[in-house]
Amino acid sequence: MAGGMKARTHDVYNSDKAKFSLKSLLHSRTVVEKEGYVSTGILAHAEGDMLEIELSEFRNFELGDPVNLTVYSPVGIHRLRSSVIAKANGALAVLFPERSFAGLEERRESPRVDVVVEGTLKHKQSETVMVRGEAHTVEIEEEFELATRNISDSGVGFRLLFGPKLQIGEIFDVTLALESRLACRLEIIRKEENNQREGYGARFVDMDEQQRRAIRAFLIREQVGAYFRLKQQKNER
After folding, report:
1. Domain 113-228 falls in which CATH fold?
2. Nearest-CA neighbor of 227 among 98, 235, 126?
3. pTM score above 0.90
4. Domain boundaries, the chain
């Protein structure tokens, strides 16, 4: 019995010790190392797909540089690999490799970026027409313009500029004008009615790896741009 009690106590202790909040990493001293160079800064921001490290020697790093990070936090020392995705006056932005933080108790949802992207949606419908007194069913395909309100790596929120009302569960072929045009499929999972046109929430379906990479690259670029623009605005006040 004593042995069993000891084992249970050990498991609970390890479980408690392994878990920590993302906030506990903020303001931690962080060593940033690339080949032939080491510098030390402060982990100032962690959200979405990026970490920001305040670093006076930021000019010694270039976009795309692979880096090793060592975070000296109140909940332990964390070592991870990342890469530089942006830099600004006094700071570096690096990819947030969530899996490297073993024990992180906060499961981050797909980051949703508020961004307007134009696109088109193909809408198919069947109509019955009479030809010489006989009924024939024909399929009509039309394209309608849309504009996104937000995008994540799991789906989009959007509005049709004009066109039919879409139904939950319907799946459509869509093209989004990212840096390059992305053809994808969306399933309607939510409708949002307001005084203007209806808005929709949709999830990506049947995406391949190339499509996922294109969405992720776009989201990272938008997150970094939005964050540093906001930071600059605050500094100018």
Report:
1. Thrombin, subunit H (2.40.10)
2. 235
3. no
4. 24-100, 113-228
